[in-house]
Amino acid sequence: MASGAAVIVASNASNVRRGQAKFRGTIGSRGTRGMSTSHDRRYSTCRSPNARSAPARLRPRRSGLRRVAPEGNRGGMVKSSDRFRRVVVVGAGLAGTATTIRFLRFAREPLEVVLVERRPDYRNSGVAYQRESNHWHHVFNIQAGRMSAFREDVDDFIRWANHEADRSDWPGDWRDFEFTESGPAPRRIYQDYLESRLAEAVREAAAGVRLVEVDGEAVDVEVFGDHAHVVVEGFVDLPDGAGSGPVVLKADHVVLATGLETKYPAFAAEVLEHPAFVRSPYSKSGIERLLDVRKDGVVAIVGTLLSAYDSATLLLRQGHEGRIHMISGSGLTPRTYPPDHRHQVLELPAPQLLGDHYEGREEFVRRFREEWDRACAILTREHPEVSPVVVTERVAKSWEPYLPAILERIPTDELRALLDSYGSLLAVLRVSAMAYTTNIVDAAMGEGGQIVLTTGRVQQIRATGTGTLVLSVAGQGTTRTIEADLVVSNFGRETNYERADSALWSNLLRKGIAVPHRRTGRGLEVDPCGRLLGPDGTPSGPVSVVGSPREGDEIIRNGRTGAFTFNLAAIKNHSVEVAATTLHRLESCFDESAVALVGALTETADPELREAVSHSVMLDVRRMATRRRDDRHSLAALLEESLQRVRALITRDDATPPTDRALRFAVSSAATTKLTDLSVTPRELRFLLGLEEAVEPVG
User: For residue 81, what pLDDT is reported?
Assistant: First the structure.
């Protein structure tokens, strides 16, 4: 290997932490999002003319990466070996880690997954779950039982927290705590959970499938037909820790999992570096400043939803006695989940939100409110077991299948205006929060309470000569000022990627590899499988996205709203879709050109063939969902036998037989669709997939 890029190969799991080969660098990548147009939810297969031949076995001595002569001013090139395929995942937070795990589990042929992260301390966590960025008083917004990283294994996180987690350094309140499906759990332990599941995926991967972790910032992607180059800055060589300059990773496919982009708080431009202003409450320094504010100090929190509640909870549980102002334009606050809450999907009549044509915003909102009240009344009457607190959540979920067709008829400008005006309301209707957080905050609100709720928009924050900050808040025709010892900004995420503070997204947008989501202006255009689309509406190359860049697409394609467009629930499905469809293109055992065969097999009128196909699909579902390598091998063998039976049934009437590769692709595509079924809860999905014997009724 030429001098420059040093690589360690983990042929033995004890060689490096968790058994992954690692490039230890400095700082890493940025944000990402993606969107698309309508499609048939039955099939999530994506056409690609670039089916690849089988990669050979990996060389055991090195990772197959090598440093070559500099390419212009781009720095060194780290090439992919001709003997195996390489996928580069940019971003090692929740979305990147979940997708990497799926690649490691799904891959049947030699594959190298390179996981790039610009913030080493955010690896396997991102901002949301990083240990030092979350106090022990920060709990998940939803129940612990909904935090499994795998939709088909709904109890996985609870099992890990109760039986596998190392609690030796946990505080007393949590050390002996028994986690339940409906109860709380601290956010900061999720990094340990994701680390453990990634390590397991590495150990249980098929022969020749491995992970390389890279610290550095991905700043650009260049597309060359069926492969791409990822430009990584801040790459550090292992032997002496010296910076190597930009490095180019050649990839057969790139997955961008860069997380939420931070919205620039223009109202705080003068005080961004002021010690009394906290721009990032989920950070080590942000937590420290919240804990260090004097006990009787005045604190102003910009925001009134879930993140703002976290900041207020931390102050109150630490015994803060001073006044706390919570400020937002909507003035909305989250409700509290009932103690025994479990997720549920109900079927309700389709909402009649439009007449023969779209009649304007006012009429649409009127119809929406009328239909909403009707749906809530129907649900309350027909499902008395549902707590009144979550009636709106059930209605919002039941409307998801109908919304894509409705939204398609709303003009683009009107749709964007509706999302801007009612986005916060939709978020509150769709999700609540845990009593651990809301009870203490809500108790401090009200007449004469410690927390003052202010409806208005912060126009400016300026510093005083005494170290405090003064906020100008406009609302209801007046402007008032609030002087605070500490200001915490929960200003939200940047949904417009043209405004994102990201070299990576700036470059991809400039080159047309990524384009803003046309209909919503939120995130980026993607195809049904999450591949970035160019200006002409076709895939711009072997580049996919998971997580928040797909916000607009989730709204338009799946009818999802609020945080459900980019949260853990969405990421679970994205990770399955992206990993499976990418491997369909890269692995020689699949023939991705056989898209038409998917429908022909799954919709066949022949009952015997339909049963055989269904059996094959369920075997492949189990193979993809299985954690242990030996079990996957056994299921793969059973699957091959089942596929031969399918083939025999197809040819019994002298029909032209599909190739084994085409048949395998069709079955795997159908299995992927089953694993990402949005019409049922994760527990119901597990039952339908034959992974659980029964589903307990939700009461």
Answer: 57
Can you read off the two tokens belonging to residue 273?
């570096």
Residue 23: strand, helix, or coil: strand
Q: Per-residue DSSP letters for 585-627?
A: HH-TT--TT-HHHHHHHHT-S-HHHHHHHHHHHHHHHHHHH--
What backbone phi and psi angles, to 5 degrees, belong to 439? -60, -45
**pLDDT of the residue at 242:** 53
Q: DSSP of 332-369, one letter per residue? A: ----B--TT--------PPP----SS---HHHHHHHHH
Please measure the distance between the N-terminal and C-terminal CA atoms of the chain and give it in whole angstroms: 62
Calculated CA dihedral for residues 583, 585, 589, 591, nearest 10 degrees:
140
Buried b (16+ CB within 10 A) or exposed e, 92-103: bbbbbbbbbbbb
Q: How far is CA 439 from CA 155, 433, 444, in A?
A: 26, 10, 9
How many Å apart are CA 573 and CA 553, to the nearest integer?
13
Burial of 217 (0-12, 13-18, 19+ CB in 10 A): buried
Residue type, 685: L
Name the residue among 664, 681, 661 with its Cα closest to residue 624: 664
pLDDT cut 70: percent of the chain above it: 86
What whole-number distance in Å separates Cα of residue 370 and Cα of residue 671? 39
Beta carbons within 10 angstroms of residue 305's beta carbon? 23
Which residue, 1, 607, 629, 586, is CA-closest to 255?
586
- How much is the pTM? 0.88
Specify the residue for token string 């350094």.
169
